[in-house]
Amino acid sequence: ARIAVLISGNGSNLQAILDACQEGEIQGDVVAVISNKAEVYGLTRASDAGVASAVVAAQPGEAREAYDQRLLAELQQHQVDLVVLAGFMRILSEPFVEAFEGRMFNIHPSLLPKYTGLHTHQRALDAGDSEHGCSVHFVTAELDGGPVVLQAKVPVFEEDSAEDLAERVHTQEHRIYPLVVKWFCEGRLAMQQGQAVMDGSVL
Ligand code: GRF
Fold this sequence. Notes:
Layout: E1 2-7, H1 12-22, E2 29-35, H2 41-48, E3 53-55, H3 64-77, E4 82-85, H4 94-99, E5 104-108, H5 120-126, E6 131-138, E7 148-155, H6 162-185, E8 189-192, E9 195-198, E10 201-202
This protein binds 5-O-phosphono-beta-D-ribofuranosylamine.
5-O-phosphono-beta-D-ribofuranosylamine is lined by residues 7, 9-14, 86-87, 107-109, 134, 170, 173.
Protein backbone atom coordinates (compact mmCIF):
# COMPACT_ATOMS: atom_id res chain seq x y z
CA ALA A 1 0.00 0.00 0.00
CA ARG A 2 1.04 3.59 -0.62
CA ILE A 3 0.86 5.38 2.71
CA ALA A 4 0.77 9.09 3.52
CA VAL A 5 1.49 10.24 7.07
CA LEU A 6 0.13 13.61 8.19
CA ILE A 7 1.92 15.35 11.04
CA SER A 8 2.17 18.66 12.86
CA GLY A 9 5.16 18.08 15.10
CA ASN A 10 7.73 15.69 16.46
CA GLY A 11 6.62 12.69 14.46
CA SER A 12 7.60 9.87 16.80
CA ASN A 13 4.64 7.84 15.56
CA LEU A 14 5.74 8.59 11.99
CA GLN A 15 9.16 7.22 12.94
CA ALA A 16 7.67 4.02 14.33
CA ILE A 17 5.79 3.48 11.06
CA LEU A 18 8.82 4.32 8.91
CA ASP A 19 10.87 1.81 10.91
CA ALA A 20 8.22 -0.90 10.55
CA CYS A 21 8.15 -0.36 6.77
CA GLN A 22 11.93 -0.43 6.62
CA GLU A 23 12.03 -3.69 8.58
CA GLY A 24 9.47 -5.25 6.23
CA GLU A 25 6.99 -5.58 9.07
CA ILE A 26 4.50 -3.40 7.16
CA GLN A 27 3.86 -4.46 3.56
CA GLY A 28 3.74 -0.88 2.36
CA ASP A 29 5.69 2.29 1.80
CA VAL A 30 5.38 5.74 3.23
CA VAL A 31 5.31 7.72 -0.02
CA ALA A 32 4.56 11.14 1.45
CA VAL A 33 4.81 12.98 4.73
CA ILE A 34 2.70 16.11 4.92
CA SER A 35 2.87 18.67 7.68
CA ASN A 36 0.67 21.71 8.20
CA LYS A 37 3.58 23.31 10.07
CA ALA A 38 6.99 24.20 8.64
CA GLU A 39 10.25 23.23 10.33
CA VAL A 40 8.89 20.52 12.59
CA TYR A 41 11.13 17.58 13.49
CA GLY A 42 8.88 15.09 11.72
CA LEU A 43 9.94 16.62 8.38
CA THR A 44 13.58 15.88 9.24
CA ARG A 45 12.59 12.29 10.01
CA ALA A 46 11.00 12.08 6.53
CA SER A 47 14.07 13.40 4.75
CA ASP A 48 16.37 11.14 6.83
CA ALA A 49 14.26 8.20 5.62
CA GLY A 50 14.41 9.43 2.01
CA VAL A 51 10.66 10.05 1.90
CA ALA A 52 9.09 12.95 0.00
CA SER A 53 7.59 15.57 2.23
CA ALA A 54 5.50 18.69 1.79
CA VAL A 55 4.31 21.50 3.99
CA VAL A 56 0.68 22.40 3.40
CA ALA A 57 0.17 25.38 5.69
CA ALA A 58 -3.16 27.12 6.10
CA GLN A 59 -3.28 30.57 4.56
CA PRO A 60 -4.59 33.45 6.67
CA GLY A 61 -8.38 33.37 6.64
CA GLU A 62 -8.50 30.26 4.51
CA ALA A 63 -11.73 28.28 4.88
CA ARG A 64 -11.41 24.73 6.18
CA GLU A 65 -12.90 23.27 2.99
CA ALA A 66 -10.40 25.20 0.82
CA TYR A 67 -7.47 23.96 2.88
CA ASP A 68 -8.76 20.40 2.78
CA GLN A 69 -9.08 20.63 -1.02
CA ARG A 70 -5.41 21.52 -1.29
CA LEU A 71 -4.50 18.71 1.08
CA LEU A 72 -6.57 16.28 -0.97
CA ALA A 73 -4.87 17.41 -4.19
CA GLU A 74 -1.46 16.81 -2.62
CA LEU A 75 -2.45 13.30 -1.52
CA GLN A 76 -3.95 12.48 -4.91
CA GLN A 77 -0.66 13.40 -6.57
CA HIS A 78 0.95 10.62 -4.59
CA GLN A 79 -1.85 8.13 -5.35
CA VAL A 80 -2.21 7.31 -1.70
CA ASP A 81 -4.11 4.20 -0.55
CA LEU A 82 -3.97 4.93 3.17
CA VAL A 83 -3.82 8.13 5.21
CA VAL A 84 -2.28 7.94 8.67
CA LEU A 85 -2.91 10.88 10.99
CA ALA A 86 -0.03 11.01 13.45
CA GLY A 87 -0.31 14.08 15.60
CA PHE A 88 -1.95 16.10 12.81
CA MET A 89 -3.54 18.97 14.71
CA ARG A 90 -6.32 19.97 12.35
CA ILE A 91 -9.95 18.97 12.18
CA LEU A 92 -10.83 17.57 8.76
CA SER A 93 -14.01 18.49 6.89
CA GLU A 94 -16.58 15.94 5.81
CA PRO A 95 -15.69 15.85 2.08
CA PHE A 96 -12.07 15.11 2.94
CA VAL A 97 -13.03 12.41 5.42
CA GLU A 98 -15.38 10.88 2.85
CA ALA A 99 -12.64 10.81 0.22
CA PHE A 100 -10.67 8.46 2.50
CA GLU A 101 -13.53 6.64 4.16
CA GLY A 102 -12.26 3.32 5.50
CA ARG A 103 -8.73 4.28 4.48
CA MET A 104 -7.72 6.75 7.18
CA PHE A 105 -6.60 6.17 10.76
CA ASN A 106 -5.88 8.43 13.70
CA ILE A 107 -4.14 7.77 17.00
CA HIS A 108 -5.54 9.42 20.08
CA PRO A 109 -3.88 9.48 23.50
CA SER A 110 -6.78 8.20 25.59
CA LEU A 111 -8.88 5.10 26.03
CA LEU A 112 -11.68 6.26 23.73
CA PRO A 113 -14.53 7.02 24.11
CA LYS A 114 -12.99 8.72 27.16
CA TYR A 115 -11.34 12.12 26.68
CA THR A 116 -11.77 13.13 23.07
CA GLY A 117 -9.99 16.38 22.23
CA LEU A 118 -6.98 17.89 23.97
CA HIS A 119 -5.10 17.58 27.31
CA THR A 120 -6.03 13.94 27.73
CA HIS A 121 -3.23 13.04 30.16
CA GLN A 122 -4.04 15.84 32.58
CA ARG A 123 -7.73 15.00 32.36
CA ALA A 124 -7.06 11.35 33.24
CA LEU A 125 -4.99 12.49 36.24
CA ASP A 126 -7.62 15.00 37.36
CA ALA A 127 -10.29 12.29 37.21
CA GLY A 128 -8.19 10.00 39.41
CA ASP A 129 -8.19 7.25 36.77
CA SER A 130 -6.13 4.18 37.62
CA GLU A 131 -5.56 3.38 33.97
CA HIS A 132 -5.08 5.39 30.80
CA GLY A 133 -3.85 4.66 27.30
CA CYS A 134 -4.19 5.23 23.59
CA SER A 135 -6.49 4.24 20.76
CA VAL A 136 -6.12 3.80 17.01
CA HIS A 137 -9.40 4.38 15.21
CA PHE A 138 -10.82 4.78 11.73
CA VAL A 139 -11.48 8.46 11.02
CA THR A 140 -15.05 9.60 10.58
CA ALA A 141 -16.45 13.13 10.50
CA GLU A 142 -16.90 13.00 14.28
CA LEU A 143 -13.75 14.23 16.09
CA ASP A 144 -11.96 11.25 17.72
CA GLY A 145 -15.26 9.42 17.24
CA GLY A 146 -14.63 6.78 14.57
CA PRO A 147 -14.63 3.06 15.36
CA VAL A 148 -11.70 1.89 17.46
CA VAL A 149 -9.39 -0.77 16.05
CA LEU A 150 -6.85 -1.23 18.82
CA GLN A 151 -6.10 0.21 22.26
CA ALA A 152 -3.25 -0.12 24.71
CA LYS A 153 -3.62 0.50 28.44
CA VAL A 154 -1.05 1.80 30.87
CA PRO A 155 -1.25 2.10 34.65
CA VAL A 156 -1.51 5.52 36.29
CA PHE A 157 0.69 5.94 39.38
CA GLU A 158 -0.04 8.37 42.18
CA GLU A 159 3.11 10.38 41.70
CA ASP A 160 2.66 10.72 37.91
CA SER A 161 2.83 14.10 36.22
CA ALA A 162 1.06 14.61 32.89
CA GLU A 163 4.50 14.34 31.25
CA ASP A 164 5.23 11.00 32.93
CA LEU A 165 1.92 9.68 31.75
CA ALA A 166 2.34 11.05 28.23
CA GLU A 167 5.69 9.30 27.94
CA ARG A 168 4.25 5.97 29.12
CA VAL A 169 1.39 6.29 26.64
CA HIS A 170 3.72 7.28 23.79
CA THR A 171 5.71 4.06 24.21
CA GLN A 172 2.46 2.15 23.63
CA GLU A 173 1.47 4.35 20.68
CA HIS A 174 4.67 3.29 18.96
CA ARG A 175 3.66 -0.38 19.37
CA ILE A 176 0.03 -0.25 18.33
CA TYR A 177 0.06 2.20 15.41
CA PRO A 178 2.49 0.22 13.20
CA LEU A 179 0.52 -2.93 14.03
CA VAL A 180 -2.75 -1.46 12.79
CA VAL A 181 -1.08 -0.15 9.62
CA LYS A 182 0.40 -3.61 9.08
CA TRP A 183 -3.04 -5.24 9.40
CA PHE A 184 -4.57 -2.71 7.01
CA CYS A 185 -1.86 -3.34 4.43
CA GLU A 186 -2.53 -7.07 4.70
CA GLY A 187 -6.16 -6.41 3.80
CA ARG A 188 -7.40 -7.57 7.19
CA LEU A 189 -9.12 -4.35 8.30
CA ALA A 190 -12.13 -2.51 6.96
CA MET A 191 -14.81 -0.12 8.09
CA GLN A 192 -18.31 -1.41 7.34
CA GLN A 193 -21.50 0.40 8.34
CA GLY A 194 -19.50 2.54 10.71
CA GLN A 195 -17.90 -0.43 12.46
CA ALA A 196 -14.32 -1.64 12.45
CA VAL A 197 -14.07 -5.14 11.01
CA MET A 198 -11.03 -7.41 11.21
CA ASP A 199 -10.80 -10.76 9.42
CA GLY A 200 -14.54 -10.51 8.85
CA SER A 201 -15.48 -9.95 12.51
CA VAL A 202 -16.72 -6.72 14.05
CA LEU A 203 -14.22 -5.42 16.60
C1 GRF B 1 0.53 11.62 20.05
O1 GRF B 1 0.39 11.69 21.43
C2 GRF B 1 -0.77 11.25 19.42
O2 GRF B 1 -1.53 10.39 20.19
C3 GRF B 1 -1.45 12.58 19.30
O3 GRF B 1 -0.42 13.46 18.96
C4 GRF B 1 0.82 12.98 19.46
C5 GRF B 1 1.79 12.92 18.32
O4 GRF B 1 3.09 12.62 18.75
N1 GRF B 1 -2.54 12.51 18.36
P1 GRF B 1 4.24 12.40 17.67
O5 GRF B 1 4.30 13.66 16.81
O6 GRF B 1 3.90 11.18 16.87
O7 GRF B 1 5.50 12.24 18.46
